[in-house]
Amino acid sequence: MLGIPSVRLLPLLLLCLPVQAQESTWKIDPNHSAAHFSVRHMMISTVRGEFGGVNGVMRYDPKNPAAAHVEATIDCSTVNSGVAARDTQMKGPDFFDVKKYPTMKFVSTRVAPAGPGKLKVSGSLTINAITRPVTLDVDGPSQVVKDARGREKIGLEAATRINRKEWGIVWNETLDSGGLAVADEVSISLDIEFIRDGGAQPL
Q: pLDDT truncated to tens, each residue of the chain (203 aa)?
């Protein structure tokens, strides 16, 4: 074959093979992850809170971030706004109705670069059995680091805004001034830490 001995031809053929993507599966570390929210109250202040029960997995190749895919759930019963009575109401039928719908879920459908170290992640968010599209503005993922146990980790931050009424959360009270007790728009921010886990499977 062109006068090239087979022993020399094999390395040349290997060089011509396409480079395989370095895609890995990463599992959310719920002990170092949280979903935060804020919403205007009575049009004069902002109530803030968080959910702690964040779980899920991400398939990610740092050389091809647009091919990433993430699926995550949040335990709605972990809602914490700092006021026990308000948290009880939020777990009830006025808001998340956790007895019927214990978790909310996000599944990505598209990932697009949005500048150095930034991504726009579009996907479907399900709350109270209603699924609607959302887009997250993401900073990260970060470079890989190792913790004290030698486990590989990456992190990211993400943010979006939603109208809670689009997910059937419509409770409100009318104030004497004519305004409403709770605004419709809710700001959401995520702090997520991942551990490399080749055995994890999508939810």
A: 445 444 454 444 444 444 444 779 999 999 999 999 999 887 778 999 999 999 999 999 989 999 999 999 999 999 999 999 999 999 999 999 999 999 999 999 999 999 999 999 999 999 999 999 999 999 999 999 999 989 999 999 999 999 999 999 998 887 767 676 788 999 999 999 999 975 444 44
> Which residues are CB-neighbours of 11 under 8 A, at least 6 positions away?
none
Phi, psi (rounded to 5 degrees) for 129: 70, 10
Relative to beta strand 34-41, strand 182-196 is antiparallel
Q: Rounded to whole angstroms, how far apart are CA atoms 86 and 84?
A: 5
Q: How far is the C-alpha of 8 from the C-alpha of 177, rounded, in Å? A: 85
48, 180, 32, 58: which is closest to 121 by C-alpha? 58
Could you give the CA distance from residue 87 to residue 190 in angstroms, rounded to a whole number? Answer: 20
How far is residue 139's CA from residue 65's CA, in Å, rounded to a whole number? 12
Position 178: which residue type?
G
Predicted TM-score of the model (pTM)? 0.83
